[in-house]
Write a structure and sequence with these properties.
It is a multi-pass membrane protein. By secondary structure, the protein is mainly alpha-helical. Helices cover 85% and strands 0% of the residues. It starts with 9 loop residues before the first helix and ends in a 9-residue tail after the last helix.
């Protein structure tokens, strides 16, 4: 492993690099939830059954796409490491293989969703008009799945090349186009919820084309082949398996939290929907630093510069914990004012305010976890993250069950539930990732 000397301005220089990557990444990450919000706003005016169907269908899509997030993460790590090693042609070749892998998985999932949409909706408990609306949305949006996954892979390539501005531009343009298409197809063409699904599918495909063209041009400029390489595609798939397991552990913890919230009564469940939405928004924002860490750590390890990687780790953690503390204060202090925006029920308002206070208190620790997650993903340490994810889920399980068994219903119960999730579960993640980062086993240098 190589060591580099520090200069007095090295910390500030790295800070500038972190912010140059994180700020555009933040914009692109925030643009993604806008798709769901626009769909909800447009479809919501069609009727309650349509909105309920959209809610169910969009959660299915988000789960499928979320499990494939490894397409962005593994591509970022691979491209960044090879670029850091000075192997730009190989880096772009890895990126092209990532695009082919995304296209293949997307095509299979699209066909599967078209065929399995009715059974999936039924399995989730929907029936009648709500089920019909959900199936319609899933089937019209399914062709866009390949586009969604291609966007992930192409974005990963550009992040690996330390370009987060291009994905931001494409994401913003996509959000605008999605809004226009949804309004035109839903109301102008009279397609109803089908128009919303079609509009989203078309937007995702066009975004994939835009990003794909940029990646292909870069590959051609560096002499990389555009043909799929079996070894590269299989390598990407193998690297993705541990991250899928990691993501499954996170989804399982989130699902367990919803189950317990349901058991705590309608007030707790309604409050949980608000708090979990705000928590997800903050997580998206803080993930911008994780993305910067992925790119810079991968590049530094590829270059064999361990000292620089350690500096990136420290600076990203400093920025992350600082941002988490600031956001945490806002969450804790504004709960009583934010809650009335979501519910007229005074009991739900109290539940939201109490749970937000708990989240605010624990947000700095959560930010620490988000950054360390990005650092280890950038280092290609997916296998450890997979094992750690399952271990933290095991730690969280008894805490969640204890809340279900002993916590009172309503506001107090929700506060205890969020202490279990944002406290116990996140603390377990902080210990496992922090322990790993303190050691040297993840610092594997070279291409």
């Amino acid at each position: 492993m190589g060591e580099s000397r520090h200069t007095p301005g090295s910390g500030r220089s790295i800070d500038r690099e972190i912010l140059a990557l994180a700020i555009p990444a933040l914009g692109a990450l925030v643009a993604e939830p806008v798709f769901v919000l626009v769909d909800s706003a447009v479809v919501g005016h069609l009727g309650t059954a349509e909105l309920a169907g959209l809610s169910l269908a969009s959660n299915v899509l988000l789960t499928v796409v979320g499990l494939c997030i490894f397409l962005a993460y593994t591509t970022t790590a691979s491209v960044a490491r090879l670029t850091g090693a000075g192997k730009e042609r190989a880096a772009l070749q890895s990126g092209i293989d990532g695009l082919w892998l995304a296209l293949g998985i997307g095509a299979v999932l699209a066909v599967g969703l078209l065929l399995a949409a009715p059974a999936t909706v039924t399995a989730l408990g929907a029936d009648g008009d709500v089920a019909r609306q959900a199936v319609t949305y899933l089937r019209w949006s399914a062709p866009g799945l390949a586009g969604m996954l291609l966007v992930q892979a192409a974005t990963g390539v550009l992040r690996g090349l330390r370009d987060t501005r291009t994905p931001l531009v494409v994401a913003v343009a996509g959000a605008v186009l999605n809004t226009v298409l949804n309004i035109v197809l839903v109301y102008g063409a009279g397609l109803g919820i089908a128009g919303s699904g079609l509009g989203t599918a078309v937007t995702q495909v066009l975004m994939a084309v835009a990003l794909g063209v940029i990646v292909v041009r870069g590959a051609r400029a560096r002499g990389a082949s555009l043909r799929p390489h079996r070894a590269g595609i299989l390598s990407g798939a193998r690297a993705g398996v541990p991250l899928v397991i990691r993501t499954l552990s996170l989804r399982a913890a989130i699902l367990l939290t919803v189950v317990v919230a349901t058991d705590l009564g309608a007030v707790a469940l309604a409050g949980h929907q608000v708090v979990s939405s705000l928590w997800a928004l903050v997580a998206f924002a803080l993930d911008a630093l994780a993305i910067a860490a992925q790119a810079l750590v991968g590049h530094g390890l590829g270059a064999g510069d361990v000292a620089r990687v350690r500096t990136v780790l420290r600076r990203c953690l400093r920025w992350g914990v600082g941002a988490g503390a600031g956001i945490g204060v806002v969450l804790a202090a504004t709960g009583w004012w934010i809650a009335p925006l979501f519910s007229a029920d005074p009991d739900v308002r109290v539940a939201v305010a109490l749970a937000m206070a708990v989240c605010g208190l624990l947000m700095p620790m959560a930010a620490w976890v988000f950054v360390l997650d990005g650092v280890l993903i950038g280092a290609g340490d997916g296998r450890y993250l997979a094992w750690a994810g399952m271990a933290t889920l095991v730690v969280y399980l008894p805490a969640a069950l204890a809340v279900a068994a002993w916590a009172p219903e309503g506001a107090q119960g929700l506060a205890w539930l969020w202490f279990a999730f944002a406290g116990v579960f996140t603390a377990a993640r902080a210990v496992t990732t922090g322990w790993r980062a303190r050691g040297d086993r993840w610092l594997v240098t070279g291409a």
